[in-house]
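Priority: medium. Attachment 1 of 2:
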């Protein structure tokens, strides 16, 4: 076997093993080395990941034969055999994100899976090393072109980190070693944080479910490739890279992007991305039943409660409350794209017209039909495509400062907050034995003081509020309204990130 700085660790692994097992270990690491032909630093990092996992398994009493099967280097495929760069243009939704962001405001979001058992970081790291080959887009970094930003893949090995910092913190785009995503673990939770240029919540959830499946396999649990869990060895369909916005039907209309300036919650904006996060854990069946009593869906019911809570948390007597509701376009055409493929509309009501649950549920049911239908969403996509086409030959150095002035008026200033519902998370039946729940959070953008999200799995709905101010009237009123309706709420709150 080749001599290198890891020989001491190999000797440690082979100590006390039979002659046959020593041979198996040496052969295993020779095969692993053959599967990685990246720059020296990347090769060394990947080798260390395998050594750590191998050592963990030995400490747990697994046989060398079992370990070699679980960590089979063949699962790396040819992904780490070269450092060829791939280049991707941004989809039409992603194009605006790097143009409109500032140093401390970056469109990040997080999807998480919470297990019943503590996360084993050595195995989670290997799961990431195996999984990333199926999602090469996630190894991209954002680059400046002459006319537009674009994505360039960079096969620097991604590292799993223990969570120690504020969620959804901006990623520095200066260092080439930084990717557009991060993976954290904390106790029983695995969290994927994504820069929105890569994908939306639906795409990120597919990555997370596939990663969780591979992690469970490394624990000895076989999970079928279904319901959003991808086969790591399959040829990636080109449709997963599609920019579906260019296929929008109908004609565009700039009026679809205009709206009244929205009221904001009282309270001073904090300096950090997120001040705190509150999770309302609810029984999904009971929540659906309660929404049905008011004649609505879970989304329109929770929107009604949010508007009532907003009314309590805003001192203004006149003005418009707008809560942005993203719409997953995949439900209309069953696209399999992993890029951004969501549009949105504003659920709105004048603040002095906010009265009671039933009135608001009926209002939002109508607004969903009028504003969130396929025809209107296609009009917005067509408008987006037309705007991008018209700006195609304007240099980036001109577009960027212009967009940083326009973007707040076209996006953030016309919404009070956001309610994004990922819906019921589908996963293989085997997940239920090991997975407790899924979570989803967005980071607020100035001047918005709250973002709200929903994720439902295994009859558990997590209704999450991420805040950008310290004033707690909004979430306190939400809790009161939920409990007033007889819903049992298990409340979880983060530490205060803004000291």
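Attachment 2 of 2:
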């Amino acid at each position: 076997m080749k001599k290198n700085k890891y020989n001491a660790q190999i000797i440690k692994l082979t100590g006390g093993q039979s002659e046959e097992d020593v041979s198996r270990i040496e052969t295993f690491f020779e095969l692993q080395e053959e599967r990685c032909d990246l720059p020296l630093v990347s090769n060394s990092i990947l080798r260390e990941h395998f050594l750590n996992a191998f050592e963990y398994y030995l400490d747990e009493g697994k046989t060398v034969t079992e370990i070699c099967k679980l960590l089979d280097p063949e699962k790396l495929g040819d992904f780490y055999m070269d450092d060829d760069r791939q280049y991707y243009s941004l989809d039409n939704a992603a194009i605006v994100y790097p143009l409109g962001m500032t140093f401390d405001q970056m469109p990040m979001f997080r999807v998480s899976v919470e297990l019943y058992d503590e996360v084993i970081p050595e195995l989670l790291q290997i799961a990431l090393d195996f999984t990333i080959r199926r999602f090469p887009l996630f190894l991209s970094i954002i680059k400046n072109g002459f006319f537009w930003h674009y994505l360039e893949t960079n096969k620097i090995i991604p590292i799993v980190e223990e969570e120690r910092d504020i969620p959804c913190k901006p990623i520095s785009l200066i260092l080439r070693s930084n990717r557009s995503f991060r993976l954290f673990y904390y106790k029983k939770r695995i969290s994927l944080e994504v820069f929105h240029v890569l994908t939306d919540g639906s795409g990120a959830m597919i990555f997370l479910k596939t990663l969780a499946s591979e992690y469970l396999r490394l624990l000895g649990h076989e999970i079928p490739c279904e319901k959003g869990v991808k086969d790591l060895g399959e040829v990636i369909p080109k449709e997963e890279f599609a920019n579906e916005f260019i296929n929008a039907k109908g004609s565009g209309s700039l009026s679809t992007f205009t709206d009244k300036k929205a009221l904001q919650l009282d309270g001073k904006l904090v300096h950090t991305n997120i001040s705190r996060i509150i999770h309302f854990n609810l029984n999904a069946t009971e929540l659906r039943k309660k929404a049905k009593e008011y004649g609505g869906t879970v989304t329109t019911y929770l929107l009604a409660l949010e508007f009532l809570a907003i009314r309590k948390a805003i001192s203004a007597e006149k003005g418009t409350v707008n809560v942005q509701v993203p719409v997953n376009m995949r439900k209309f055409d069953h696209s399999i794209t992993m890029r951004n493929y969501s549009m949105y509309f504003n659920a709105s009501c004048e603040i002095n017209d906010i009265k009671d649950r039933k009135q608001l549920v009926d209002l939002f049911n109508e607004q969903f039909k009028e504003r969130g239908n396929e025809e209107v969403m296609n009009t917005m996509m067509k408008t987006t495509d037309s705007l991008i086409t018209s700006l195609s030959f304007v240099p980036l150095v001109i577009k960027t400062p212009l967009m940083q002035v326009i973007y707040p008026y076209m996006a953030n200033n016309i919404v009070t907050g956001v309610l994004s519902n990922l819906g019921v998370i589908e996963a293989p039946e085997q997940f239920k034995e090991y997975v407790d729940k899924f979570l989803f959070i967005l980071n607020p953008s100035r001047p918005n003081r709250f973002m709200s999200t929903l994720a439902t799995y295994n009859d558990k709905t997590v209704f999450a509020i991420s805040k950008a101010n310290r004033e707690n009237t909004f979430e306190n009123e939400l809790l009161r309204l939920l409990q007033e309706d007889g819903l049992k709420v298990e409340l979880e709150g983060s530490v205060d990130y803004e000291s």
